Task: structure prediction
Amino acid sequence: MTKRVLIAGFTGAMGQKAVNLVNKMDGFEIVAGLAPREIDNLANFNLSKSAKTFTSLNEIPDNVADIWIDFTTPSAVYENVKFAINHHISPIVGTTGLTDEQEAELISLSKEKNIGGLIAPNFGMSAVLLMKFAQEAAKYFPDVEIIEMHHADKKDAPSGTALATAKLISENRPAHETAPDEEESLKGVRGGDYQGIKIHSVRLPGYIAHEQVLFGGPGEALTIRQDSFDRDSFMSGVKVALEKVDQLNELIVGLENIL
Result:
């Protein structure tokens, strides 16, 4: 049975990568798209003429799709995912910016509705492995900082990947400040703080998505780094999510949890 897919944010850079991926996959069909503006020529965005497009959630009818892929914006993603779950559509979410409270609410709603789905801070395999390696290293190097570097158009900071990395690291180290007595002569120069883990966000043209986790200990240091040079690299993870989402009965956070 062919799975019907709605892609939210299909006109964006990541949305278009998702469109191209689904178009190549057997057993999946793009039946709808959500974008903030009306689209006159669907062929310009690699959608078939039969696909329906919408500019707001209240335009979307019931039973429109089986799977909802979301590559939109931090300001839209919460309502989008909530809408999908309430309408029994399995969400695959690559948009970052959800708060812990919002994630918890969406997970609870998915359990209530018995709808499976995935929220992935990063769909790149190198990023997933970086998070796993960093979590393990934190047992031996509790003093750590994170630097994440993204393209200039990224709307949220820190990145979902960096925040997810910090959360995983915090599970294996006691919360503490590495340099508790320091003073900033320039406010914010030491970055954001998650349970004593400093996170620094870089936004520059030419970058796609990159992260470094720096561990320091007496007389030695460890750096773990991943680089995504092309948005196509994220599609392997989206493909896995598409193939496995119907095996889930609640919303899962983290691609590593379905590999």
